[in-house]
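User: two proteins, same treatment. go.

Assistant:
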Amino acid sequence: MLSKAIRRVVLVTRVNKRNISCNELSSTTINIVKSTAPVLAKTGYDITKTMYNKMLSENAELRFLFNASHQLEIKNEIAHQPRALACMMYNYAENIDNLKLLEKAIESVAQKHVSLFVLPEHYTIVGENLLWAIKKVLGEKATIPILQAWKEAYFHLAGIFIKRENEIRTNKALQIGGWEGWRSFIVARKVKESSVITSFYLKSKDGKPVLNYKPGQYTALKLCTEKVKACRNYTLSKAAGDNKYRISVRRQEPAEKGAPPGLVLKVSNFLHDHINVNDEVLLGVPSGVFTFNHNHANDEKPIVLMSAGVGLTPIVAMLDFILKNNVKKSVTVIISNRNKDVEALHDWFVASEEKHSNLQVVFLYDDPLRLSSKTLNASKLDKLLPNKDCHYFFCGPQGYMKMVCEQLLKWKIPEDQINYEYFGPTRPL
């Protein structure tokens, strides 16, 4: 494993020399790119949508890294992946003279890239297609100075990503149980948790130790079968410690969301229907920034864990960690679901609450077929949490997280006490 890490350093150096630089940007480039921010606010999505259409149709080696559903405009909503990149382009242009403001966003993306084993050479392909799309969409407005400035700016940012990803990758490879790239795992157990969620317990094929992880982190799962060739990130849904990983996967219903059946969201369903005990899958190293750590346990502030739907998975891992580490302070868990039939791990939460006097678990249901923010609204949240000065962790659909985030901001909760994560490309709340 060490030799692979060393080879990766060599590869990064070679790619950097060819077309990617971490040198400081010129003032001319900074000024030009910053001046394009208003244009990107209007055309950024068209640029990134055009870029992905071309890049994914011409580069099969990149196609499996992306969820096809995130490229689709379903029910007149813009596609998630192009929107996420467009937002990042705009923020980069707006803050190119102060990249410290983007450190959290860069770290989040770098962690995803490490798990998915994104390589330095992939950045070159993305950069070439992005510059082509800028020219395609803007036409004559994309002057030579603008294209040159964005070329320099893009590869500068790519260099930052590559450097950070190499640091993360090397660090993980050198830890006990660590590895780089893809590692073979065997399904040790398959447990149906609800009508829509199934858990897969995974052990290393070679029988050697596996890398520990922080509660809330995810792993990338890669399938290479005749029917499915794709990668997806899945949260590790329990605390580390027994040399096995667990992912709890929700069965998707693409037709219900207006997506073409069979085209998108099929990896999760494939796991449900075709992956069984003793089958082999490939995993990337655990990664992610949405985590609970000892710093959250060491002060006097209570902990609030909230989820809707399959957003439950990182919350389960965090609570499992809290209980196993005998954290004594008050913990409130608020779980929202459509109904009891789709709810996973109910009995585990009940048993945990009975065993730990500092734990309160609240189950909320929305009997209609669709999960909505009505399950947990601002009024309910206000009544459930008389003490507002807490550490908050929440995960679920966008509408749900937006409602929670807005309420916490109304209570003037400090930013460092508000923690959340999207499943899929990050979107603004």
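Protein 2:
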Amino acid sequence: MDEDLSDSRLDRGDEEFAADIAGDSDALLEILPHFYRGEVSQANSAQDRIDRTTNWAITLLAALLSLVFSAPAMPAYLLLIAVGALAAFLSYEVRRYRFYDMYRSRVRIVQENVFANALSPEGAEHSKWREELGRDLRYPTFKVSLLEALSRRLRRIYGLLFVVVGVAWVAKVTLFTPERQWTEAAELPGVPGVVVAGVLGVVYLAIVALAVWPTERQAKGEIYGERVGEWKED
């Protein structure tokens, strides 16, 4: 019973300590830079993980392209392995991008409501930004949907990589195997080349559809909406 009372008093003391900081603007401004630097560091770490995933995807793609075109006898289906590998890297990167956007959104809410208002006192961007930020720290949530993250990574990076693989596959089964029909060069064991080409075409149509999917923007802190140089004009 005594332990329960002591724990309860400790909890109340913690709440009062935190409440004192929340009600004291000087104390709040003293801890806010530390919080801001921590979130910036988290966002930078998440960005670094994204970059490493992209670098591995590009490295693997370059290795497979070099292997496939190193000799005419190399089969074209190795490029289908590249498509699967890119899809796997994309799935990892989408998740990492969502974590990055979560940390970046916290950085942006401080920039919008503290630093921007300090430079130009026009009022906070969000009337309850402190409550929103506190709630997100207690119960972290992704700010960008899986579909939007997938679409963004396709448009920014992976769409071009998939195009490179597609063009390389077409070139391999046509220009680089003139002694055979393209349907023979494209076939897999037990699977006709026409079927392989049809499935690959469906995959690429799905990639295009996902890349241009018309969703409402949820990602935070992107550059958008202004003409280049417009921000400096009177």
